Amino acid sequence: MTSAGGDDWLTTRLRAAGCVFAEEEAAILRRWADGEAQLGQWARQRAAGEPLEHVVGHVDFAGLELAVGPGAFVPRQRSRLLARVAVDLLGARPAPVFVEAFCGVAPIASYVAARCRSAQVAATDADPVAVGFASRNLISGAVYRGAGLSGLPAELRREIDVIAAVPPYVPAQALELLPHEATDHEPRSALIGGGDDGLGHASDLLREATEWLAPGGAVAIEMNARQAPAANETARAVGLRPRVVSGEDGQTVVVVAAAPRR
Ligand SMILES: C[S@@+](CC[C@H](N)C(=O)[O-])C[C@H]1O[C@@H](n2cnc3c(N)ncnc32)[C@H](O)[C@@H]1O
User: Fold this and answer.
1) Beta strand pairing call for 120-125 and 142-145
2) So what's the pLDDT on residue 2?
3) 77-258: what CATH class?
4) Which of 54, 60, 99, 189 to mutate to test the pocket of ligand 1 (most atoms within 8 A of CB)?
5) CA 43–ligand 1 middle distance (angstroms)
């Protein structure tokens, strides 16, 4: 049914609830709903502020349809930069080893697995909900559970060519600046980065990576551009050679820290 303004009931409902992209969201809800009853229920959930991706159970990430749901971090479109950097770093290495750390539902690992068929791909996260979704999404690869890199099998020590990560990197004092969709529906442990600068997890990963990277391997970490100078300093302090790849949004960067070749 269409309203006087030309909108159908779903678009009107979503717009009234404050959804900026109401038409696009209505199309996505219709695409995934199994009948009118479910569509009505989903409209209520979305209007109440649940993330669209949690409601429909899917997110499109760089053309991949990934499972996601309540209790899990929804991959952000800005992380396509990290996905591309990871594939570039793997380059033409024969049978490379790739790990997504802090993987959530494993968007980067899934992207790498789809594009680098010869790569051995693994993903790891501390949260059992994230590990469950990652296991569904990463069809050709292994998923492990543990803090940082601690859940990885010992035989990967000094064997990994590329580690990529979107660790939590929001400083605790900046949490109130995030949209309610994130703070009300995604785990705090997926958002808050630790330390005054939000770089606690990223710094730990840089240190830990030195034990897991193969000679000449690299760890690539997404963060805010303002955090890059401090991350570069930490990388140098642990013996890695950092450089920064900037995203088009002017805020997102990937710090790539390379291990010595020998
Ligand atoms: C910002 S989310 C990123 C998830 C995914 N990489 C993405 O881009 O969608 C951070 C993830 O780190 C995980 N995490 C938080 N603390 C962790 C820790 N100490 N060790 C391992 N994973 C952790 C959370 O469970 C969450 O899934």
Assistant:
1) parallel
2) 53
3) alpha beta
4) 189
5) 29
